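Example 3.2
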Amino acid sequence: MSNSSTDNRVKAYAKSSGVFLSEVKSSEHIDDSGNQDSIHNEQGNDKINIDLTTDFMAKENNVESGIALTAAVNIDILRAFVPLNILSDDHLNTVARATDVAFFIHGHQVADANLLQENQIFLLSGCVAVEMADGKQERIFGGSDSCHLSIGDRFPHAVAVQAVEDSQLIILERNKLDAMLCWDQVAKTLAVDISADRQFDEDIDWMNTLLCSNLFHKIPPYNVKEIFDQFEPRVVQSGEAIVREGEQGDVCYIIKEGHAVVTCSGDNVKPLDRNEQRKSPQIVARLGAGRCFGEDALLNKTTRNATVTMESNGVLMCLRKRDFLSLMAEPDVAAIDLEQAEKMLASGARWLDVRSQQEYDNAHKDGAFHLPMHLMGLKSRLMDNDTDYIAYCSTGRRASTVAYLLAQQGFKVHALGSRGHPA
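Structure, written as tokens:
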């Protein structure tokens, strides 16, 4: 979940602190067949699940021999942590594929104040001591109620964390996780709106496919509602080739009605036998209503890697590259700082907490109106159009998204730009 710069900082910090990072990597390719192909381990499994109660003796032996340990976290484990528990399974799987499990030897430092501010750090097992700015310390144990939140959110004034026992932790970049939360929650709100509107009865399948597609998560959440407007319907006939292998493409398709077959030439299909030669196109997949293909054309200047042909009459929803790129532009959302917020509060403004229920329950600002993003469409009806609201979250991203979307509905909402501790 972390970019290269944060990755390098964490690894450098880890090396100096005596931590062994277990990097769980799985490359994912979305091709013209609409399939997502993950690299499997030698046993053919997508994941090697670990028992978090495993005896550390074997691990210590590996550490002494200098072996970096490999272990993966499944989504059931991730779902135990806040705010990961509000993510959809698709997003949790994305997090699991990119998660590093860090093993810290007892006595070594886990994080300093900067690492805590930039990352969500969750304790899986073991015990760590959390040092506060005033010098006080608190210990937390893996599996306890106090470790459901990230260490930085549970203890907003923490300046250092040290492993009291051999411990396993997950480190996720805060900004990237919050970006995923934004998309996930806005998409859920939109899905509820779509399901409640009868005019979309025939479009629910392809719209839900779009909302779950990893490709469209690159679009700023402010623009989610505009995505559907950019798609155009196209009536197609049985036998019609929609994309051809080797051709340049600039359109992505979602099947609204009908079904298609995906074929590849022998050059793009790995033979089952090393001596086998394949010259004729091979069927690699069949696609039905709700499936997406041709996404690569929107982001990369590349040729089609497969041919997609309709096997029945149908309707496709089409998105051109130029329209997709127009959605990538992020609107300028003005933010206020804490000093401005305090002046507004003195004049009658009210805090607006847009985090999850568990985050809100842990700590929130006095008098805050709680508006979880996924309930925005329902709970916004309880807001006052004449009141100024100051939205906040853990990074400012969710607050900024909510402020933008509610302003479109006529509410006066301002986003607290910097990370505001909900104390």
